[in-house]
Request: fold
Amino acid sequence: MPSPDTPKPAAGQLLKVLGVAFGLAIIVGNTIGSGILRTPGDIAAALPSMYWFFGVWIAGGLYALGGAMTMAELAVALPQSGGQYVYARRALGEYPGFVVGWTDWFSVCGSAAAGSIALGELSGALFPAIAHWQTPIAIATVLGFTAVHWIGVRSGDVTQKLLSVLKTLALLAIAAACFLVPRSADSGSAVTTFPVGTAFVAALVLSFQNVIFTYDGWNGLVYFSGEVKNPAREIPRAMAWGVVTVALVYLALNAAFVYALGMGHLAGEKFAAAAAAKMAFGATGERIVSAVMVVSLLGNVSAILMQAPRVPYAMAIDGLLPRRIATVNLGGTPFIALAVSAAITLALVLSGTFETVLAISAFFFVMQYAVTFTALFVLRRREPALVRPYKAWGYPVIPAIVLVGALTFLGASFVTDRTNSIHALYVLAASVPVFLVSRRLVGSPR
Reply:
């Protein structure tokens, strides 16, 4: 017999059924992708010193933790599903909120498309007989997870927990296997000269930028703030432990790669995980890593497609999109927003332009962080009476550090990828007429 405390399903409202375990699962699923299996070689080549190599990974984890505990204040004070759009609109107004929602939705759908395409490619590599079915596999992945999340938030909760546990265990198994092989005897033979002066600064900035992007995704839980049973208690705990879990997995994998390959062989290795796995598992190592990547990407796509509809849902609730988009089914899913998000994701899968979309998305993700951290300062000053059951660590120092970091990364994006940064500005410019048309069609937001 159901407990009297069990939320009663009712059409038209989200269900407050999520807890710390889901928070951990969504952060792990949203954050850990293929990046950690690829980027260590590039970072080891840029900073060929074990101390600096591990230093940037630890610093990246601390930066992500500072960002998470800063954003947690907003998620607890404004416990509404919808992600960073909610904070931008409250602090900065309708149009800035629309811009953050518009770009976030665009970016999330692009990330889901990229993950689905990568799954199709990996499936073809694992099973050559289906290599020509890569696009249909990507489409089936999107449709499959759309169906899971359409059923309701509880089915998404269970699915995400399962995939995140499998992903974590699989990655730690690779790390453990690497420690079982004889340690590389020529760890320093191929190490390049350590950079000095401006070359060192450039290498450090590029490495830290790669690390931060590999940690990106730690904000996954804020998309579901309105569905967490006890936001004041569970959101900060889940965000803190989620980032710590990701950081420990990353450090374990990097330690395993350094142990198995040595810094010399790790430096410049384009696919560090595959190289280390070959030493641990022999000829089948690359196939094992590909299988682990499939599990990892399944968790990614599931998490992304679950959070994607929460953004237009929140915008529709506020009157910035047609109200019908906010319709919720009995399972607690904004199913019309989910259907539209899936359609956009499938269009990107079929368009062949997802690489450009993904590059633009990286710019937007950092921009959204900068806006959110700014919103924290604005709301502290403008709404001092706002109930804040949880407050950001080390205010104002730590929030200022993560804000400056986000602004620095935006500047670095213009320097290192000017073409896609300009494309991102075009998308931002397009938000103006879209916002005006939306307001005219929908009417004045509430």
